[in-house]
Amino acid sequence: MxxxxxxxxxxxxxxxxVLTVSxxxxxxxxxxxxxxADSLQxxxxxxxxxxxxxxxxxxxRAQVAEWAENEGVDIVLTTGGTGFAPRDVTxxxxxxxxxxxxxxxxxxFHAVSRExxxxxxxxxxxxxxxxxxxxxxCLPGSTGACxxxxxxxxxxxxxxxxxxxxxxxxxxRFAKDHG
Length: 179
Fold this sequence. Notes:
α1 (31-42) packs parallel to α5 (143-157) and α4 (103-117) packs across α5. The protein has helices at 31-42, 57-69, 90-94, 103-117, 143-157, 172-175, and strands at residues 4-5, 15-21, 46-53, 75-79, 100-101, 127-131, 134-139, 162-163. The protein starts with a strand and ends with a helix. The chain is α/β, with parallel strands linked by helices. The protein is 36% helix and 21% strand. β2, α1 (31-42) and β3 (46-53) form a beta-alpha-beta unit. The strands form 2 sheets. A 6-stranded mixed β-sheet has the order 3-2-4-7-6-5, with helices on both faces.
């Protein structure tokens, strides 16, 4: 079986929250968060929540944990705070609450990002993992990096029709329907 979307399967929409981590962006200037929110809705998923928080590890950790504990949120996407600036703390905020880290997400993100930004991808600390039964994906703050992450990885892996398997089968409310 070749990897791809199996049109014979039913699409299962997910409930996805988007968190932008930035000391300077507002809802009007947050192109990365807006891109993710628009893209996930265009793909047929629902936007559970969208928020902007400053680069503050306890606040980031608390918000992601709150969303992950909410049965109405399947996936949390963050954008920003994954670089090496002194206030970039998203990975440090999220790692302590991960029940499992998804090393493959970071590796795959870097592989696809290299096509766009070359070796500069090494400056990203993109991160993926599981918090309880929810999945969290931390993307860099640039709209281009969010586009790479969504268009080349997440739009497929978050689509229940993707074969040979998608992350949807790991979400408890869908697990019985996927193999």
